[in-house]
Amino acid sequence: MANPKAAESGAALRMLPSTDDLLTSMLARELLPEIGQKRLAALARTAIESIRKELANEISNSAGREKGHSKESLTADALRRLDELWKSQRATRLRKVINATGVVVHTNLGRAPLSENAISAVRDVAGYCTLEYDLRSGKRGKRGAHVEGLLSEVTGAEAALVVNNCAAAAFLVLAAFAKGGEVVLSRGELVEIGGDFRIPDVLTQSGATLREVGTTNRTKLADYKKAIGENTRLLMRVHPSNYRIVGFTEKPSRPELADLAHDNGIILYEDAGSGAMVDLANLGFDDEPVISAAIADGADIVTFSGDKLLGGSQAGLIVGRRDLIEQIRKHPLYRALRVDKLIYAVLEATLESYLREDAGENIPVLRMLGATRQEIDDRARGFAGRLRDALGKERDVSIETVDGESVVGGGSAPAEGRPTMLLALRHSAISADAIERKLRMAETPVIARIENDAVLVDLRTVHVDEEDVLLDAVKSALVG
Ligand SMILES: *Cc1c(COP(=O)(O)O)cnc(C)c1O
Fold first, then answer.
1. Which residue in 45, 213, 357, 396 has its CB near the most CB atoms, within 10 A?
2. pLDDT in tens, 383-432
3. By the 8 A CB rule, do 403 and 419 touch?
4. b/e string for 360-386 if b means 16 or more Cβ within 10 A?
5. Is residue 305 lining ligand 1, measured as CB closer than 6 Å?
């Protein structure tokens, strides 16, 4: 430093606390059990270092004029920074949130919430379990056999297999049957599903060649027929999921495609994406493939996700012809894409619910989608009443119930959203952005959306048991 006063002003730097100073503080003693000695010391050093840099800048910019630093003020500053550093690290942890968005299958919020049965099944098998052990023989058992049986039972397929997610399932199917050959696919189904799942890219990566047929809006059976040649390995059908082609459209029916494939000795593979175990037309899903129907119509292999409308965990489910499933099981990639015991536990509990025919009440995704506007209206009015009571004489707050729509999300689009009753929250002195942020930063974060300068809360996706915590968070956000 060329500045002659720099040495003098370096006094502040000499007053900086040491790492040990910070580690003996009250704050450090509180944080220690949670963070551990080594990480805590590293955070303390980072905090001190950030002040050191600022002081050095301050000194060179101010020609050495001191700003009244003291050892106490610098230590307090360092501790504040240490606390901030830890809080911001912690904020990126996986945390439970309250989903007040009304988006039922919210990919950013972990898609399907699990059923009580699924949660307790996970607890049960979290230690040692019979993953690959047969109690009757006392010998090695077949991994996933029970879930595969349940999947066959629910969908009517001969056999089933579980992998990591639907993208993996599609990739594996294509790699197993179409590598080095051609896959015929309609131009109307060359879609991107979100989260970087693009059908043409998956096809290329699997080693198959895409043979696109038809047009974006209209593809005829004859288009598929013309495209079938010596190298064709399979006909593929993809559910466009979060996207619709409406108006002047045409596509062959599934049985027509199945017949065409089988007449030519090739496979009909359908990527159903979300897929439904039971017909959800009464919930507005007139267009969501029911997996058992796809099998009954002659699809040889169908893949779908475990954590969309099925209501389980992330998984890719493959169902279909036994000989084909066995071929996939022997593919080296299957070993790389298989799932662990926790996933099997969730899927077992979830599928059992469908077989007992209580999925509508016990699988949260289905229960939430099934809630009527009237049911949500009752809850919203009750909640608004409790909130008004809790806020007492707070005059700047407006709490209204307004008609709205809940979205399904997760790559499935019903004809329309589900009619719902929203709570619209406003404060004359606090912006909607600030309220939304406060909710998000609450002890149990609440994720809500903003429309027309109001924060909207959709109770469809809020569990009844979460209402008390939600009430506290909303109250704190509205009282400033
Ligand atoms: C959602 C979806 C996928 C991807 O499923 P993941 O389980 O998220 O990997 C693949 N195909 C279709 C048609 C989908 O809708």
1. 213
2. 999 999 999 887 899 999 999 999 888 666 655 688 999 999 999 999 99
3. yes
4. eebbbbbbbbbbebeebbebbeebbee
5. yes
> What distance in Å separates the CA atoms of residue 352 and residue 5, rounded to the nearest whole number?
78
**Distance between CA atoms of residues 184 and 178, nearest Å:** 10
pLDDT, one tens digit per residue, over 9-55 is 578 888 999 999 999 999 999 999 999 999 999 999 999 999 999 99
H or E stretch at 140: strand 139-140
Tokens of residue 135, six digits: 């109690």
| 239 touches ligand 1 (CB under 6 Å) | yes
Indicate the pTM of the whole model. 0.92
CB atoms within 10 A of CB 231: 13
Are 113 and 364 a contacting pair, CB within 8 Å?
yes
- Whole-Å CA distances, 95 to 3, 92, 99, 446: 50, 8, 12, 11
CB 48 within 8 Å of CB 19: yes
Q: At what angle do helices 37-61 and 71-91 cross, to 10 degrees?
A: 120
Phi, psi (deg, nearest 5) at residue 405: -130, 140
